[in-house]
Amino acid sequence: MIVFAGAQLHETVPNTTGMARYSIDFRTVHIDDIATRRGAQNIDSRCTGTTLRDYLRASDLSHIPEEIIVGYDDGTADGKEVLYFGDRLAQEARH
Prior knowledge:
By secondary structure, the chain is an all-alpha fold. It has one domain. Helices cover 17% and strands 0% of the residues. The chain has three helices and no strands. It is globular. The relative contact order is 0.16.
């Protein structure tokens, strides 16, 4: 297992192999860190948007408050209807 900060050593690169590439990530966030924007500077990733709406608290499955998440919206989702996937993709795959 490799543990690293998602803000470092995590560059997105094109897959030019012609083969599917799979990755399984277990991601966690600390609510106080995201609320105060404390953490490593993201200097080597070209990701856009945020996945914070998909995180759930383990104790009660509540979502991160929207007032915290909006500070991470970068405008790339403007005009798009999906800001939170939830289990939508799994539900669509079943049909």
